[in-house]
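Good morning C.,

I know you're traveling, so I'll keep this short. The sequence:
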Amino acid sequence: MTNQPSRESMPLFSQTITDYWRAQFLNGDVLYSDEVFTVAINPDLDEDSRVMVLETADGRVMAVLTPALAEKTGLDQRQDLSEPIFRRKLNEAGVTLHGADYVFYFSEAEKNILLQENLEGDLRRLTEQDEAVFSEFQSSASEQDLDDAYVELDHWAVFGSFEHDRLVSAASMYPWGEDSHIADLGVLTLTPFRGKGHARKVVRSISKYAYEQGYEPQYRCQLDNQASVSLAKAAGLTLFGKWDVVSPDSTD
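The tokens, ready to paste straight into the viewer:
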């Protein structure tokens, strides 16, 4: 009996994604590492990301922080670390994290399905010629929804779904970080039109477009946003992990 190659041998996520996150967390001096927890010190982190934590869906946790923060928290002295100790040291030093976001991507298998899909319905890419319909769309949404979704007509790519010639759902994207070839997306559907599949279609349409431009679509949402989590799964996205950065209000 010959062993057939396992379908599981295909990497779950593209090299673009895994390389990006490895660069974020491992481009520095690794202070501590075991099977589940890794901490690195990187002097090149931006001020607004001077400490970051990523818990991948397989339960592994990576953390990175600046040398100044490592010194302040005493983490540069410790040989024996764990995630609870790391978080306690941050708290003791007055370093507050913002609160994690879920990060979703298309698996390689789902990406292949998406690229072969012909998306149907009244949806298309939006341009500056759609300023009037987009303005009407925004005026029909709450300030909270607009802030949460961050969907803008002047972003790198914008797609919309229509019902009776009215824009009822829109998604927009912009490149995420420098030279990452990842495009971060936001999506907003007007309340009366939710649950009809509009958001799923615009997410898949804009994601297919991103792939055609050489980018990996990225979908983020807060942990308590169950509607957004459900949409990610309905659109075919897979959870990559939970990502947290230092809070803008941190006292450190």
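Safe travels,
E.
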